[in-house]
């Protein structure tokens, strides 16, 4: 059986990665989305095992010590990581696995899986990103400021990814991602502006 493929989707907090992911999975149920573990508290509506596995810091540290995470990072005061076993199992079975992770984790994945396809989602502008983060209203002012600071660093690293997609219009952004995923023989465009 053909070996699977690893797809890394990264972009600043508030850029709409989660929404894009959900739309992509609805259109392509054959894709496998890795569910991360995190020490962050659940937001209203988030479900353990669907959005994340919500764990304590001690549980997270234990997973790190046991090499149960493929990559992990600290982000805005919380820890996030990709459980190793399910991803390796899916790849072995020839599945395409999608990781929706931040920059430090993406870099770790590119080191261990040089063939992984990196997609970076950009906001139309930093002002628009701030607006979206504040509109979400699920974080404290302090957390929003931390996320915005981090967003600047992440956007500065967009060139480390195979492609960049600007998320202005969700449908168009999704079309661009699909074009890259499902027409792999096409040369990869430098930047995909939508
Ligand atoms: P949020 O708290 O908004 O759900 O996620 C914060 C950031 O952590 C987002 O950029 C998200 O992509 C990233 N993230 C989610 N899961 C993981 C993971 O398993 N590993 C890493 N490195 N980042 C993750």
From TrEMBL:
<dbReference type="InterPro" id="IPR027417">
    <property type="entry name" value="P-loop_NTPase"/>
</dbReference>
<dbReference type="InterPro" id="IPR008145">
    <property type="entry name" value="GK/Ca_channel_bsu"/>
</dbReference>
<keyword id="KW-0547">Nucleotide-binding</keyword>
<feature type="domain" description="Guanylate kinase-like">
    <location>
        <begin position="4"/>
        <end position="182"/>
    </location>
</feature>
<dbReference type="Pfam" id="PF00625">
    <property type="entry name" value="Guanylate_kin"/>
</dbReference>
<keyword id="KW-0418">Kinase</keyword>
<dbReference type="GO" id="GO:0005524">
    <property type="term" value="F:ATP binding"/>
</dbReference>
<keyword id="KW-0808">Transferase</keyword>
<keyword id="KW-0963">Cytoplasm</keyword>
<dbReference type="GO" id="GO:0004385">
    <property type="term" value="F:GMP kinase activity"/>
</dbReference>
<dbReference type="InterPro" id="IPR020590">
    <property type="entry name" value="Guanylate_kinase_CS"/>
</dbReference>
<comment type="function">
    <text>Essential for recycling GMP and indirectly, cGMP.</text>
</comment>
<dbReference type="InterPro" id="IPR017665">
    <property type="entry name" value="Guanylate_kinase"/>
</dbReference>
<protein>
    <recommendedName>
        <fullName>Guanylate kinase</fullName>
        <ecNumber>2.7.4.8</ecNumber>
    </recommendedName>
</protein>
<feature type="binding site">
    <location>
        <begin position="11"/>
        <end position="18"/>
    </location>
    <ligand>
        <name>ATP</name>
    </ligand>
</feature>
<dbReference type="GO" id="GO:0005829">
    <property type="term" value="C:cytosol"/>
</dbReference>
<dbReference type="InterPro" id="IPR008144">
    <property type="entry name" value="Guanylate_kin-like_dom"/>
</dbReference>
<comment type="similarity">
    <text>Belongs to the guanylate kinase family.</text>
</comment>
<keyword id="KW-0067">ATP-binding</keyword>
């Amino acid at each position: 059986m053909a070996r699977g493929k690893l797809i890394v989707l990264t972009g600043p907090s508030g850029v709409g990665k989660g929404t894009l992911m959900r739309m992509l999975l609805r259109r392509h149920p054959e894709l496998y989305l890795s569910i991360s573990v995190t020490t962050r508290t659940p937001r209203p509506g988030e479900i353990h095992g669907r959005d994340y596995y919500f764990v304590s810091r001690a549980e997270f540290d234990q997973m790190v010590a046991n090499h149960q995470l493929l990559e992990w990072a600290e982000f805005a005061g919380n820890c996030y990581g990709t459980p190793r076993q399910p991803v390796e199992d899916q790849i072995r079975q020839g599945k395409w696995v999608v990781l929706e992770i931040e920059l430090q984790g993406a870099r770790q994945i590119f080191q261990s899986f040089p063939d992984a396809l990196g997609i970076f989602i950009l906001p139309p502008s930093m002002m628009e990103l701030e607006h979206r983060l504040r509109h979400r209203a699920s974080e404290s002012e302090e957390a929003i400021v931390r996320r915005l600071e981090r967003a600047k660093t992440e956007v500065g690293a967009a060139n480390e990814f195979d492609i960049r997609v600007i998320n202005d219009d969700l449908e168009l952004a999704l079309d661009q991602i699909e074009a890259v995923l499902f027409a792999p023989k096409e040369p990869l465009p430098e930047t995909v502006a939508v």
